[in-house]
Design goal:
By secondary structure, this protein is mainly β. It is built from 1 helix and 9 strands; from the N terminus they run E-E-H-E-E-E-E-E-E-E. The strands form 2 sheets. Strands 1, 2, 3, 4, 7 and 8 form a 6-stranded mixed sheet that branches. A 3-stranded antiparallel sheet has the order 5-6-9, with no helix packed on it.
Length: about 140
């Protein structure tokens, strides 16, 4: 299943205020259980994210996004932020959400969160590979209108 993340409402402000440099900062994705409730209007930093998954094959803090790209398509006025799909091999975990955040700042209270994916139900791996396959249109898009 290909997924596209939803922006947290304050994420564009974090990008425009230079708190996040998508190209050079360490951008990560962490997994959370169904007990986490994303709040697009209130959550702005990693310290607001709760109920990170635990289990074999998963490291606290999640995985780093590799080969990040930003592209602009003039015909549609769309900026696309993308990266390689992410997977946790030999894992035994249950996740409902994936949260994308900037891991470069020193503390959770200063690490901006960008967006999240709601899988729609718990996704489970049992001594297998848990994979997030980003949508062909990218992780995030911004349309200049």
């Amino acid at each position: 299943m290909a997924v596209t993340a939803k922006w947290f409402g304050k994420a564009p402000m974090k990008l425009l205020n230079k708190e996040v440099d998508f190209d050079t900062d360490v951008i990560k994705v962490m997994l959370c259980t169904s007990a986490y409730a994303p709040d697009q209007d209130v959550h702005a930093y990693k310290d607001a994210v709760t109920n990170e998954v635990t289990g074999a094959g998963y490291t606290t803090g999640g995985a780093t996004l590799a080969n990040k790209t930003m592209d602009y398509t003039g015909a549609t006025n769309v900026v696309k932020l993308d990266a390689n799909d992410v997977s946790w091999a030999n894992s035994t975990i249950t996740a409902r959400y994936a949260v994308i955040y900037d891991d470069t700042p020193a503390t959770d209270a200063t690490k901006p969160i960008l967006g999240y994916v709601d899988f729609g139900e718990d996704k489970v791996s049992s001594n297998g590979t848990f994979t997030i396959q980003w949508h062909a249109d990218g992780i995030f898009t911004v349309t200049a209108a």
